[in-house]
Write a structure and sequence with these properties.
The protein is an alpha/beta fold and 636 residues long. The protein has 26 helices and 22 strands. It has five domains: 197 residues, Rossmann fold, CATH 3.40.50.300; 127 residues, P-loop containing nucleotide triphosphate hydrolases (Rossmann fold), CATH 3.40.50; 97 residues, Arc Repressor Mutant, subunit A (Orthogonal Bundle); 74 residues; 65 residues, Winged helix-like DNA-binding domain superfamily/Winged helix DNA-binding domain (Arc Repressor Mutant, subunit A), CATH 1.10.10. The longest helix has 23 residues.
Length: 636
């Protein structure tokens, strides 16, 4: 078996050896064990399930939260000559039907699917007939309410247990999980006698830096020019991606913006130019980075504070995947900390706001009370918010609240091609053509160019149709829309927008029951995560790397010796002279009772810089303990 997995690794991935823990995880899966793999970002999680799946008979079912991530992995597998398919909203019902048939008959090795899709009756029925080798749950932290990207639909994955023969091994993979999240994953997936493999989250080549900075642009420009190489700059809003990219270009740095509101074409162009090193920097929201394989990123700079340390660790971890020295820099000031608190408050909508958005939704889509609607509905946030006079940001958080309640699901934005479905039968269509000679050429080209138009919505290409008609895109689109108005066809124009799917029968707004405990728990989670970020930026006593990995309950790390805290410590001298007076004052305060770093930094008569250097000296000399809550106490 060992020779076989190394042969597959060499044949398909071109590697001669595995990274730490990969071989152990693969062997555990091949032994039929449920397995939990915790590997840091860039640690090679995909190979952990892809290699054993190539050894085992049958199809590997991969549950993944992001369409873009699924598409990237499917493309990478196909490039290696491995059969794979992603079931997403961008696929027609016919395409999904054919793909599931192929999986049943053994023509596919990997089927990627979102957790929302596994609930469909079509999928469940086909699954019963598939020979499933294993189930891989990627980004498994999404199953936990304590995880940073909680997806309610992940809770449905456990239903697969009853649909698959025993024992079908499950493997859960994540790069960011605390002990609470690990317990939740094991529990919610019913992982039996789980083998847990956890690699230290310490990234020895990654240097973490937090800098208090009022003039961030100057600091950014200086850092980028000194560090050189490719980098990512993370900001919190779409507007800032455009503004910061413009400012960097004005300072001679090749920077491009990237955010979820850009068209697929523009996003792809930015990504391609950056990967090819034709642009040095991408200024992005957190929509950028997942699934992108660029190992030579030399720096990641956060201009705005992330909402949680999980997100920060994942985003910062996109630097230095080639194992060479790289930097994760966080530029922060007091205004940023206030902005983070404001952003978190926006993520906690009140009941009245949630109900208002739900009322607007059912009116927008004209959903009748009590009627189930399983169709994916294109959702244009900007147009929706404008029509109902809603705040777009608040609307998104209300939708997420409705998603947590199980009322709907909102997909990520992805390119969806145009689709046409002919509603008339052949005889009716012939009669229509006779009465509408100007539309006859378009109908003829449609019927000759595409199969299945009478059976289901079928992907069409307006530009290709226009070339055959010697016409133009605008005219073809206009004629298709006219045919749809006349109820000859249904026509869904291509879109980059996300989809909303309603999970149950339409409920009256007045009957909409929102779970108070769920709302309170969500509020507490967000506030806890925010406080962890604030503590990280304020703690200049403990090594940055140690602070980060300790958040994930990893206490094995030594001081890195290279972060801003460790470098400052090297310059710290023993408490003497005037600083000895500060030392005595600080020690007296801590002796009274444990004090927070914030409290000590505000001590009258002591400069903040003296407090930091004194506390570092006291920590080095084992006089004090600094807790994860930034509380300083004397060591007994």
């Amino acid at each position: 078996m060992e020779n076989q997995i190394f042969g597959i690794l060499k044949k398909y991935w071109g590697h001669k050896s595995f990274r730490p823990l990969q071989e152990d995880i693969i062997e555990s899966i091949l032994e039929g064990n449920d397995t939990l793999a915790l590997l840091p970002t860039g640690g090679g999680k995909s190979i952990c399930f892809q290699v054993p799946a190539m050894v085992m008979e049958g199809v590997c079912l991969v549950i993944s939260p992001l369409i873009a991530l699924m598409n990237d992995q499917v493309q990478n597998l196909r490039k290696r000559g491995i059969t794979a398919f992603a079931i997403t909203n961008a696929k027609s019902k016919r395409e999904i039907d054919v793909a599931l048939d192929n999986a049943v008959h053994g023509a596919l090795k990997f089927v990627y699917v979102s957790p929302e899709r596994i609930k469909s009756q079509l999928f469940k029925e086909r699954l019963k007939r598939m020979k499933v080798s294993m189930v891989a749950v990627d980004e498994a932290h999404c199953i936990s309410e304590w995880g940073h990207d909680f997806r309610p639909a992940y809770r449905e994955i456990i239903e697969l247990r009853s649909l698959l023969p025993k024992p079908t091994p499950f493997v859960a993979l994540t790069a960011t999980a605390t002990e609470d999240v690990i317990d939740d994953i094991i529990n919610k997936l019913d992982l039996n006698s789980t083998r847990i493999y956890k690699k230290s989250f310490t990234r020895e080549n990654l240097i973490y830096v937090v800098q208090e900075e009022g003039h961030k642009l100057n600091r950014m420009v200086s850092a980028i020019k000194n560090l050189r190489g490719s980098g990512i700059i993370y900001v919190s809003t779409r507007r800032e991606t455009l503004r910061q990219a413009h400012l960097l270009r004005a300072n001679g740095i090749g920077a491009l913006p990237y955010h979820g509101g850009m068209s697929t074409k523009d996003r792809q162009e930015t990504q391609t130019m950056w990967i090819a090193n034709k642009a040095q920097v991408v200024v992005a929201t957190n929509a950028f980075g997942m699934g992108i394989d660029k190992p030579d990123v030399r720096f990641v700079i956060h201009v705005d504070l992330p909402s949680g340390l999980e997100a920060y660790f994942q985003e910062a971890g996109r630097a230095g995947r080639d194992g060479k020295k790289a930097y994760a820099i966080c530029l922060v000031n007091d205004e940023d900390r206030k902005n983070l608190e404001d952003r978190v408050r926006q993520q906690i909508p009140v009941k009245a706001e949630i109900k208002k958005v739900y009322r607007a939704l059912v009116n927008h889509y004209q959903l009748a009370t009590g009627i189930a609607s399983e169709d994916n509905k294109v959702f244009d946030l900007k147009a929706f918010a404008k029509r109902f006079n809603l705040n777009p940001t608040n609307t998104v958080h209300c939708l997420k609240a409705l998603e947590r309640e199980g009322i709907l699901s909102l997909s990520d934005a992805i390119f969806n091609p145009s689709r046409v479905h002919v509603l008339m039968n052949t005889k009716e269509l012939y009669s229509f053509e006779i009465g509408h000679p100007k539309l006859e050429p378009l109908i003829r080209v449609l019927l000759r160019s595409y199969e299945g138009l009478f059976d289901h919505p079928t992907k069409v290409d307006e530009m290709a149709i226009a070339r055959r008609l010697k016409s133009n895109y605008g005219e073809v689109k206009s004629q298709l829309e006219y045919l749809a108005e006349l109820r000859v066809i249904t026509f869904q124009a291509h879109t980059d927008l996300p989809f909303i799917t309603f999970s149950s029968n339409r409920i009256k707004v007045d009957d909409l029951k929102l779970n108070d405990e769920l709302l309170k728990a969500h509020k507490k989670r967000l506030e806890d995560k925010m406080m962890a970020v604030l503590r990280y930026t304020q703690n200049d006593v403990i090594c940055r790397s140690r602070q980060l990995v300790a958040y994930f309950d990893d206490y094995s790390a030594e001081d890195c010796g290279r972060c801003d805290v460790c470098l400052a410590r090297k310059k710290t001298k023993p408490a003497e002279g005037k600083q000895f007076e500060s030392y005595k004052l600080i020690k007296e305060e801590i002796a009274k009772e444990p004090r927070t770093l914030g409290y000590l930094n505000r001590l009258p008569g002591v400069k903040s810089a003296e407090v930091s250097s004194t506390l570092r000296w006291m920590a080095d000399n084992k006089e004090i303990i600094v807790s994860s809550s930034n509380v300083v106490s004397l060591k007994s």
